[in-house]
Amino acid sequence: MAGLFISFEGIDGSGKSTQAKLCFDALVQKSIPSLLTREPGGEVIAEKIREILLYSQDEVLPQTEVLLYAAARSQHVRKVIEPALAEDKIVICDRFVHSSIAYQGYGLGVDQESIWQINRFAMGNIFPDIVFLFDLSVDAAQQRSQERAQSRESLVNSEKSKRDRIEARSFEFYQKVRNGFLEMAKDPRVKILDATKTPEAIHDEVISIVCQVYQGGRNQ
Ligand code: TYD
Asked: Which of 10, 50, 207, 220 has the lowest CB atom count within 10 Å?
């Protein structure tokens, strides 16, 4: 088996980025070759597309969003993820294709089959072996995001410290996104984690699942 590809998913404020970093640090600690990356971004051109997607002052239409996320993903997959997997690394990605289906599909109402089709082209042969879904109520997630934004603003008074374009969306939007993620958890590769648990307890669950799948792959 060449490497292992793991994505971390959930609504904004679910704690997935913190857990992705904790997971990466634990793997490095165990001397397992690993890479931590994120979407949108993770590669030079993809990071430029991220700027447009998250901070553009002008309207970005839902269909355009789908295409821009997919374009960023294509760069990221071919230039960063695929080479790392070929080197047998564990790739930890903060968000991947499930975010496109949840946000642009369930959230904004873009046809889901079209999103899958565009993304099949963008991803090529790459698909996550494990998708961790950090599940949390929209109320709790928004409260966390607000607290984070407040502490960010008191630290850096820059334009970027303001809530980004997408985080500014409504409660109803996030409700649809959360339900969309849960709907996709019918796929056994998607592992739902209760994001209200302590960071330590969640981390233990993540590591135990990663080690199980990693060892399973090695023994094949
Ligand atoms: P996020 O990782 O939450 O950024 P930050 O750590 O700065 O909060 O991702 C940025 C936003 O991008 C997030 O609100 C979800 C959105 N997104 C999509 O709508 N579709 C996608 O395909 C991806 C990858 C992200």
From this structure: 220
